[in-house]
Amino acid sequence: RECDPDLCTTCGADQYDVTKISCRNVMVQRGLGKKLFMAPSDVAGWGIFIKDFAYKNEFISEYCGEIISQDEADRRGKVYDKYMCSFLFNLNNEYVVDATRKGNKIRFANHSINPNCCAKVLMVNGDHRIGIFAKRNIQPGEELFFDYRYGPTEQLRFVGIEREMEFL
Q1: In this structure, are residues 55 and 134 in contact, taking their beta carbons and an 8 Å threshold?
Q2: I need a labelling partner for 30 at 20 to 30 A (CA). Which of 7, 21, 70, 157 fits?
Q3: pLDDT-derived band of residue 146, with 50, 70 and 90 as boundaries?
Q4: Exposure of 133 by Cβ count < 10 A (0-12 exposed, 13-18 middle, 19+ buried)?
Q5: pLDDT tens, 101-136?
Q6: How many Å apart are CA 140 and CA 120, to the nearest integer?
Q7: Which of 167, 51, 162, 71 is nearest to 113 (CA)?
Q8: Which of these, 23, 16, 11, 4, lies nearest to 133 by C-alpha position?
Q9: What's the pLDDT tens digit per position in 70-107?
Q10: Are strands 145-146 and 110-111 parallel, antiparallel or unpaired?
Q11: Taking the CB of residue 79, how many other CB atoms lie within 10 A of it?
Q12: How large is the greatest C-alpha to C-alpha distance in the chain, in angstroms?
């Protein structure tokens, strides 16, 4: 459910003090994410790392980008697949967020079958938006991962990389 600061007072949506806010929608609405930095990843290419400690279920960042139709995403996806680099994220049945050109740092979070973050689509001010939340407590300097929810074929490519890293 979407919070309205004028109507909802139980979750802290009407508060200015961020320590009194428990509503996830307000955290996304106000952009109250964690400080992140980009660095080379041990898993694949670049990764995104967290500067400060994050508690379980705490808001980390919003996955931002250009909102495009599913048809346009299919067209762009074919091009991105040739380069083996895609930042497409399904928003709902009609639209996809493409973070390739207009995305923020969180697009560099890599895939894992055992992630420390999870993505949730929330209704914020009448729009679907993607929030990235801590799945467990996350230490400063730790790389962020979430499950891309690949199909069985695509997942095999990335699970292999992850298994190789476990043995290093």
Answers
A1: yes
A2: 70
A3: confident
A4: buried
A5: 888 888 888 888 888 998 888 877 777 888 889 999
A6: 22
A7: 162
A8: 23
A9: 899 888 888 888 877 778 888 888 888 888 888 888 88
A10: parallel
A11: 10
A12: 53
Cα–Cα distance, 162 to 168 (Å, whole number)? 10
Q: Which two tokens stand for residue 18?
A: 């961020």
CA 161 to each of CA 41, 64, 69, 109: distance values in angstroms, whole numbers, following the listed order: 12, 26, 31, 15
Query: How many whole angstroms separate alpha carbon 141 and alpha carbon 131?
Result: 20
Tokens of 157: 């490519």
Determine the length of the chain.
168
DSSP letter at 123 equals E
d(CA 63, CA 119): 8
CA-angle at 116, arms to 114 and 121, nearest 5°: 105
Residue 99 CB: number of other CB atoms within 10 A? 20
Q: What is the pTM of this model?
A: 0.76
Residue 129: C-alpha distances to residues 28, 67, 75, 116, 156 (Å): 8, 10, 22, 20, 28
Cα atoms in the 13 Å half-sphere on the side-chain side of 56: 2
